[in-house]
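User: Working on a comparison across species. This one is PASTA domain-containing protein from Bhargavaea beijingensis. Can you predict its structure so I can line it up against the others?
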Amino acid sequence: MKKKFRFQWGAFLMFCVYGGLFLLLFSRFLFIQVTGEAEGQPLRAMAHAKYEREQVLSADRGKIVDRSGDPIAEDTVSYKLIAILSEKASKDVKNDKWLHVVDREKTARALSEHIDMSEEEILDRLNRQEDPDVYQVEFGPAGRDLSHDKMKKIEALKLPGIQFVKDKKRFYPNGPFASHLIGFAQKMEQKDGTVKTVGQMGLEKTFDDLLTGKDGKMAYESDTWGYLLPGAEKQVTSPEDGADIKLTLDKTIQNFVEDSMNQVEKEYAPERMSVIVANPETGEILAMSQRPTFDPETRDGLSSNWLNEAVQYTIEPGSTMKIFTLASAIEEGVWKPDDYFKSGSYSIYDTTIYDHNKNGWGWISFREGFQRSSNVSMAYLLERMGGQAMMKHYRDFGFGQKTGIDLPGEATGSLNDVGPVERLTTAYGQGTTVTPIQMVQAASAIANGGTMMKPYMIKEIKDPNTGKVLREGQPEEKSSPISAETAETVLELMESTVTSENGTGRIFQLNDYSVAGKTATAQIPNGKGGYLRGPNNLMYGFLGMAPADDPQLIVYVNVHRPKIPAGEYGAVPVSKIFKPVMENSLKHLNIRPDVDQETGKAYNLPDFAGQASDSAAKELAENGIHAVITGSKGEVAAQFPVKGTPVLQESVVLLQTEGEPVIPDFTGWPKRSILAYASMTGANVKLSGEGYAVSQSVSPDSPVDPATPVVIQLETPEQEVIKSGKEEKTEEEELPLD
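Assistant: Here's the predicted structure for PASTA domain-containing protein from Bhargavaea beijingensis:
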């Protein structure tokens, strides 16, 4: 029997539906195969992203080191504390080895004894365990930068869920050490949630861009669990460390400064102090510090004052300004050291100024006036040279202008050139403001034969990744505000303030070195147009250089409002900084002492003025001192060094007389004596090198001819030893170093 065909609509519909779905799925597969995209996303990149892992390789922040490469600031290994909260971390782990925090109260109590957070604050963080989305927590700044020692102590507690991540921190190994100069850097959270070390003040902030390195990364392909896939390659982008900064600071000299300031701060509790040590021949700053200070490691002691006071803070310098008033008068040709004036007071218009003892010392010479730090003597010098001339010389010395030192935020100071009264007070250091670094720059002209050196502190900035020097500091001559003869005269008078029985600086004498310097006692402005009153409301200072015959160091000290006990005076705390810093620093630098350690006896020069030159020479010879008479035998008109100066055997003393001078044998003479001879006789002397004379271009006993230059070669004792090939120890090598 023939079957009748019946059309199955149900089957047909199912065929259409499933056939259509198959065609749709096939079309999708074909599209993906051809284009490699799904929903507009590249599938290859999505798969790569799913299985690719990336690890950050952190760069080191650049080091800050002293002139010898000793670290002042550098990165070191630290640890970050984290707490695992999710119970998933302990899945399939036995009960005695939990990997998450189990007892929150116990954990909080134990951690509070080791990090700077209270038990309640820690517990608040750990209670986030109740949020299932929180896997782990950190503890903010208190849980970062942990030392290895602290990490080990916490680790020994064996607290479940407490782990550490190795990190880096900024390390300051010297504690309070030029802290306002160096500044500090600390970790700061960025807008994108990352944490980065950022300079907050000082050099750390100024050179933050250079010091900050560039992190690298390591990328690799892994399986679902994070393990490296077989045959997969690592792609490493190496980190680029930040630039290293080498300073001109000498760590040993800086420590001399820090130690002496600590002692004075403890003993006299001054409101503030500042100290600068510089090399006058190069302009290099060897030490710089201030009080109050702070520890950059912990920030303990950091107050609202973030200024580097040596550069950013202005003061009225007081009598140390008289150095430059004197130099100006000598340059103007009005300095007559043996002229007399009436000390005590001086009036101009309706203003009267006084010497520091009010009544003065009667009629005294201008030389004695400088030694006694007479304000009135400066007034008469100003009268002789004129206010405009004096102010021009001050500007030549760099006052009222930035020195250009390579440090941030330098202040300008202000020369008070308003009128005659203001110029008068400026002449002895009141009313005009300067920065300590300006005083040191100006003093370099006195110590350096008239040539003023620009101060600098950055010796070198180097890229550690390539070894390329990005920036190099070099000695730079700023100008020559005075002649070599003027500098020599000022230096001699500054030395006499320390050696003369009339000098205000006798307390600053050193055991082994001669000192040239000038004291200061200055009133402190009260901010209301007047000055603070009372013996404990003064600033005391000293600007000194040594050795006096050829200064190798300048040390400038200011102590504000020290608490002076009965029976003492303001120069005492200043001397307790200056003397150990200067003496120890010179020995550290192997500078030969003036006083022989074996014979050690110095002869104090009498005043030979008016005596017969042959009798004066005989007296000097009896004391083992070589006398040089500049002219014919006769009456002594002047001498060098001045009376009261202690000199050693075999030293040279110049006696100026009438008559035609001749060129002596300069062999063995120090630079200072040569310049003094040139000043006395008008000889055209040209010096080459440093130290003591070893040769000269004009024969001894030749007449002095100003038109004929006398070229004198100087060498240090070390150079002589090297040239001669001698192996025996020099006097410098035998000295004990502090």
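For your comparison, note: Confidence is low (pLDDT under 50) at residues 596-600, 718-738.

User: Helpful, thanks.
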